[in-house]
Amino acid sequence: MADKEDIRGILLRLEEQSPAGFAIAFHVKFTTPEFLLQTYPADWIDLYSERGYVMQDPTVSWGFNNEGSIRWSELADQDLVGIFEECRKFDMNFGVSVAIEQGGSRSFASFTRSDRDFTDAECADLHDQLATLHEMTLSDGSMDADLRQDLHDLSVQMTHPDWRKG
Questions:
Q1: How many independent structural domains does the chain possess?
Q2: What is the per-residue pLDDT across 69-94, written as a single tens digit (0 to 9) for each?
Q3: Are 38 and 154 in contact (CB under 8 A)?
């Protein structure tokens, strides 16, 4: 069984690999994730919510309907409201989205950088790490109640800079 430190270690690695931020929606049922972890800039998260971008976000649509990984540049023609242009205002210039369906559950994520696009090897590694986290957080009834609470707490804390300490 996974523990909080194993999960935290993978999340720290993901943070290093996506220095402009990431969002991971674990075990999405209908439109609601069981856990949502984000390290995007707080102003971006606020703007995204205020404008209701989730309903128009090509990365979310792709995540619901596909598995694997795709660079945001490959989704640009599906961005009808200019979400990627808005991302660039927050230094999220390059992104990759990853989706997993396993164990009757779907998780998907987007990872961003400001300096360059993700390499094929990095995309594959991000996919593997998401698959590991997906499996570690799969709710099959065996997840310890303390770990479940820790994950919910982490969902909230990750938007604050001190999340790494806890």
A1: 1
A2: 999 999 999 999 999 999 999 999 99
A3: no
